[in-house]
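DM from R.C. (forwarded with permission)

"hey, sorry to bug you on a friday — could you get me a structure for this? deadline for the figure draft is monday and I only need the backbone to look sensible"
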Amino acid sequence: MTSPGRRVVNCIVASALRMVVTAIWIVVFVIEKLFHGIAGYFTASPPTFHGFDQRHYQPDGEKAARKFLMEHPLNIFNVLSFGKFISDNGKCVGYRPAAKAPYIYLTYSELIERAQNFGAGLLQLGGQPNNDYLVGIFAPTCVEWTVAEYGCMAYGMVVAPLYDALGGEACFLVTDFCKLEIMICGGDAQVDALMHDGKFPPSLRTVITIHEYLSEHRKAKLEDFGVQLLSVVEVEELGRLNPRPLCLSKPDSLATLSFTSGTTGIPKGVTITHRQMLTGVMALAQGFLPLQFGPDDTLLGLFPLAHILEREMEKLIHLHGGKVGYISGDVLTNWFADAKDVAPTVFLLVPRLNSHLCTEIQSDLNKSLYRRTLANLGVAVKKVEMEHGIFRKDSIWDRLVFRKYQNMLGGKIRVGVTGAAATDGEILNYARAVLGCYIFEIYGQSETAGIAFSTPYGEMSAGHVGLPLPGVEARLEDVPELEYFARDGRGEVCMRVTFGSNGYYKMPEKTAELIDRDGWIHTGDVGEWQPNGYMKIIDRKKHIFKLNQGEYLAPERLESTFARSNFIQNIFIDGNSKYEFCIALIYPNYKELGAHTADPKSPESEVLVKALIKEELVRIGQETGMQPWEVPERIVMLPEPFSLANGCLTPSQKKRRDGIRLKFRDEIINAYR
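My reply, with the result:
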C-alpha cells in the first residue's frame, strides 16, 4: 500500500477510535447523571450551589470580624487592618518584577508599613492631613499606585486619579482646576501629558515617579518649571525617617474623586466618601450571596486602578483577607500568562475582554472538528445544568475539552464579574459554561460608586443587568423626545443610592443636573423593566441617532450584538440624519479570517474580507430579528484597532464615541460618498 494510502487508513482508524471513546464517555456521563438524579435537571428543584466552600472562616472568626468592624471607624485605610486580621497577615498585593519572573507579594503588614511611610513622606513634602487636600495619581496599575492610595488615606488626604485616555489637555485642566500640588506619575508618558502645549500646571510643585528613572529631557523640563522630582522609594524613605501618627478621616469625609471620561472641557470629578465606598463594597458582597469570600481568594487586577469598580472589587477582596495580583503590562498581550501565575479565584472583565477570551477559545476549537463537536455538546449540556444552579469544573466535558481553557486563566476561577459596558448574553453564557463558574453582570456608574444592579447568582437569562443591589432604589423617568414613557416600562434610569455620590467636585451646576431635589441620580441610560423585575439597559439618551426616514438607532445595542462575530475585533456603528442607512467602522479579526484567505491584511484581499464581514452582519441581523435599517449598509475597514493609546477607548474599555469620530473623521465622510 502506498504511503498516502496508509495515511488515509490511519485517519479513518483514528476517527473511529475517537468516536468509540466519545460514545463511551457519553454512556459514562448518562450513568453518572442517573446516579445523581437526572430528573433534577427537568424539575423546578431549588438551585444547587455545586462545588463551593461556603465557609472560608469559622463562625468564631466571623464574630470577631464583626466586633472588629464595630470598634474601628468606617475608613478605607482600615480595610488593610481588617484584611490583616482575617488572613493572619497573609499575602495582600503582588506584582511581577520583570518579564517572566515569578510574582512577588507584599503581606498586609508590609503594605501598611509602606503606605504609612509614603503618607508621612507626603506630609514632609507639604501635604496637609485633611480632606481638602488632593493628591493626584497618574500612573498605570501597579503596587505603588495602591501604596500611594492607602498612604493618602492614612493621613486624611484625598486621592484624585487621572488616566491616559483623558488626554493631555484634560489632565492639564484637571490638575489646574483641583489645584493639585503633588502628582504621582508613572513615567515619561504621564509627565508629557501634563506638559500641555509647552506649559505645566501652575499649581503643581512636586512630581513623584513610580520608578526611580525619568529621561534626562523630562528632568530638565521639570527643573525649568521649578518642579521638585522624587521617586516613590525616596518618599517612603523620607516618611520612614520622619514618622507621623495616623490621621484618619471621618466616615463622611471625602476619600477620592473619580473623573468621568469622554467629556468636553474639564472632566467631572465624582466625589466619593469613605462611607460611600465601603457601603458600596458591602452591598456588592451581599449581591454575590450565597457566594462568600475569604483569605483563599485571589483577584487578578486587570482594570486601571483609576476605575472605581476595580477599587471596589479590590476592597472587597481585602476585606475578606484575600490577595490581588496586578497585570504586568498590556492586558491583551499579558493577561493569559499573568493569570496562569496568579491563579485567580475571582476575575473582573470588561465585555471586550470576555469576547476576546471566547474568540480565542473558539478559534482553537475550530482547529479540530472532533473537539469542536465535543465542546458544542458540552456547552449545551452544561447550560442545562447551569439553569438549575449547577456551575462546576469536574464534569466529563471539563475533563474532555474545557480543562485546557480553564487553565488559561490559572485553573482556580470560581466566580467572575463583568461590567462597565453592555455584555452579549450568548457570549456570557458560553464563558460561564466553559469556565465552569457563574459570572455576575454588574451595572453602575462612577456616580453610584461603580455599582447599582447585579444579576442574582444562577440567573441565566440574558440581556439584562439584574436587580438593584441593597441600598438602591430605582425608577424610570419619561424621555418624551425619544418616545420612551415610564407608563410603558421604559425611560431614563434614575436611582437613589445610599452609597451614591453627593455630586461633582466644585461643579454645583453639573451636580444639580445629576441629582434632583428628591435625591434621584439621573443616569442618562434608557432602561426597560422586564416582567421578572429585572432591568434591561436598552439605550443611551445621548448616543441614539435618527436616520433620514425617521427611524431611531441605538448603536451600542447593535455593536454588542454584531461583536459576537468571530470576524470582528472592533466595531463602531454611526449614522446621519441626512441618510437612511447606517455605516460600520470595523477592525477585522485577521487571525480568524486567515482561514478564508492567505493574506487577509493585503490590499488584494480587502474586497473578499469586506464581503465576508457583510455576510456576517446580514446573518446576525436576520438571526436576531433586526430591522433592515439596523444592519450597516456600508463598511469601513479601519487601519488599527481601538485602544487607550489612540484615544478610542476609556480605561474601562468603553468606546469614546467622540474620539472615534474625530480620529476617523475622513473615513466616515468618505463612507457616505
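R.C.: lifesaver. The chain has a mean pLDDT of 85.
me: no worries. The chain has four domains: 16-45, 76-272, 345-540, 545-671.
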